[in-house]
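[Backbone geometry]
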Amino acid sequence: MTDRSEPASGAGKGLDESEAKGLVRNMSWSTLGTAARILIAGGALALVSRQVTTAEMGLYGIGWAGASLGYTISLNGAAQSIIAVPNMERGHVGAAQFLSLLIGLITAAILIAVSPFAAQFYHSADVGHAVWVGALFVPLMCLGAVDVAQAQKALQFSKLAFVQTAAVVLAAVTSLALAYAGQGLIALFALQGLIGFYVFVVSRFVGLSMGLHRFGWRHLTDILSVGLHLSLGSLTGALWLNMPQLLIGTVATVDVVGLYVFCSRIVQLVFTQLSGMINNVIYPTFARLRNDPAQVGASFLQTVRFTYFCLNLPLLMLAAAPTAFLVVYGGAKWASGSTVLLYLALAQMVVALGANVFPTFSAMGRPSVAWRWNLFITLVQGLGIIVAAPYGIVAIVQALALTAWVMPLAVWWLSKVTLFRMRDYARNMAPIVLALVPAILAGHLVEAALRLPALIVLAVAAATAMVIYASFTLLMDASLRRNLLDIVRKRRLRTGAVNPAPEEAGNRSGDPLSREGGEVAQ
């Protein structure tokens, strides 16, 4: 079996051994933290969804669209600019903190001002109220953005994993308390909208600097020069993600919007967290290689297959047994959304083909690519929704899955800049993509054949699909098989080294490897 990760002749060599080890180590911390956050936030959403109506879910989806725009601009346009500043000073952190809070307050004011017009546009006073409620959460969401960026800049992924996971726990507890108190709409906003606030609070307890430093015009200019394109990227990205429910709301009831939003929220809970985990590691790692495009391209080919595999495993569970999953997760009232969930999961599997593309472009100092691409795919998918809208919600999600196939064009764009060949990319990805077909079909056959409680059906169908997918993938791809075995082997070695033998302990007291990315191992 050949190793498909080898770069083309004349291309860069990718990450060196120490950089590859650092990438795996940081990805491991991000993976652990992300897995915990998905479980906690997903469990909280499941419980909250049993207390809210489909109409409240639909109102939340429309109101959240505006709130998320402000937050993503704050996070990516101000805070994440710190990572791209070559020689960061305390003044840069202060400027980023100032801009982050200012963006949050301005966005909240704008949303409150436009809430009456939203009510008129959707012919519903409840929609205006939802936009107003969402506006109140925006400044709270922006509070922790700089704390996250500072930890990423310092490659303190273990500390960041703890802070973000603790914040998700606190937000989930608050959301559940509100839901069981009968405040369903506010509970839905709190589940996501309070994470930034709790990141800010928890960061103070782990010793992260608050970021309220004095800054000058030079610091502000540096942040703005980088943040402009990142802001546009985040703005257009949020528009792309939230555009479907905004359009669906114009042709369907809020209950139908709620069905779409619930299924979309499930998919995004998995996909956004995992892709965010990947971006958090890929972006600062590849930024160190920005002056060598060929090496960046080789590193992209080196990592994209592994990240695609990680993204697909949880999405596969949704696609393999969508009806059983919705019944178990949210209750029987959501079961009618099984087809919606299936096509949304398939669409995300297609989008995942380019998961590493945009952090790679950003790491190379070309953040404008993200917003230009987001505008393009928003236009393509928006036209698809408009054409499919008269035929109902199923036709709309089918259009989303179909139009997602423009994603390989983004990879082609990257290949022209980083000098790898598309046939190498296709050869890399073919086994891991083709293995999805028998896995999903097997899951559906199991779900249709079993007449057992939904939880058992879900467990058997999902396990069957995942085993088939992993088996086919690892059988056809020797390189990925070796990479996974290396990670497992390193984990075992590290676990075995926690309590070294007495004669070894003295020899290791001054071990320089006891530090992780500049951070003392905890």
